[in-house]
Amino acid sequence: xxxxxxxxxxxxxxxxxxxxxxxxxxxxxxxxxxxxxxxxxxxxxxxxxxxxxxxxxxxxxxxxxxxxxxxxxxxxxxxxxxxxxxxxxxxxxxxxxxxxxxxxxxxxxxxxxxxxxxxxxxxxxxxxxxxxxxxxxxxxxxxxxxxxxxxxxxxxxxxxxxxxxxxxxxxxxxxxxxxxxxxxxxxxxxxxxxxxxxxxxxxxxxxxxxxxxxxxxxxxxxxxxxxxxxxxxxxxxxxxxxxxxxxxxxxxxxxxxxxxxxxxxxxxxxxxxxxxxxxxxxxxxxxxxxxxxxxxxxxxxxxxxxxxxxxxxxxxxxxxxxxxxxxxxxxxxxxxxxxxxxxxxxxxxxxxxx
Length: 354
Description:
Elements: H1 6-9, E1 11-15, H2 17-27, H3 29-45, E2 56-59, E3 64-71, E4 75-83, E5 97-103, E6 109-114, H4 116-134, E7 141-145, H5 151-162, E8 166-170, H6 174-184, E9 190-193, H7 197-200, E10 206-209, E11 216-220, E12 230-233, E13 242-244, H8 246-251, E14 253-256, H9 259-265, E15 278-279, H10 280-285, E16 298-301, H11 306-319, E17 327-330, H12 341-349
Helix pairs in contact: 3-4, 3-5, 3-11, 4-5
EC number: 4.3.1.12
Domain ApaG: 1-124
GO molecular function, one term: ornithine cyclodeaminase activity
């Protein structure tokens, strides 16, 4: 493959929301979730290559705005993302995002894309990938507590990757549950709408919590969780926001993405700084054990980490090739003489240099 000409590097492929939807529908939701999980798994296997840092966050009483950067030494990626639970009441999305990949050798961007849809897909793909390693063998029933924007993606990923066929849904807002039931109808699930969280977890081997309120909450109390389940706790994702009673954490084996970030934002922010956790990449590589026996409680304290977005950006970059589902943005200045940026400006505007 020949290196691109300097003039070609000035145009950055951009995947809009419309084209992301077209790409997902062309690939198929289930296939895309499985493909994303494969890329995420590959990058967990080479975890030690990545630059890692807790996300750079600007917190306010209304929510948070974050940058999530990482690099594997050849490619750099970042995501801009917000989390504002109040937005739903105003007719706005709780989470919006966009992301970028760049070539480390030149510093030039090679992809700019929407990531609101892509974040929902990669979050679900990560949850299902973790459950593939940690959930009880043969698990087919999931309790889905919190039926907002992420719920359908979680359900479909667990179906595609883990074989979940039965869903028990609960939300404090019955309209959210009705929405999820409607969207998931005809997709191969046995669906049950529940009136309480306690009812939802009956018979479930996997329990997913994905609520949105920015507060210390107890979605699951200690006495609700029996032996042998896998808990996919993804709603506690910023300081001051949790979903589980601390007693559950003390009885479970807790798995995380990147401890320095999770101790700030995840369920384990409730626990002492030396509370023991296992990094999930170690399970993927075989350096640590995942599920050991049928009575073990496994808990994924998932807050989302930059390598997962990096994986998702790589996936989109590879799958959009040849589809035409992107635009070329004139994003970067490209003077004929790299030292003469001002000359390019004045020639373009017709203003003579002084």
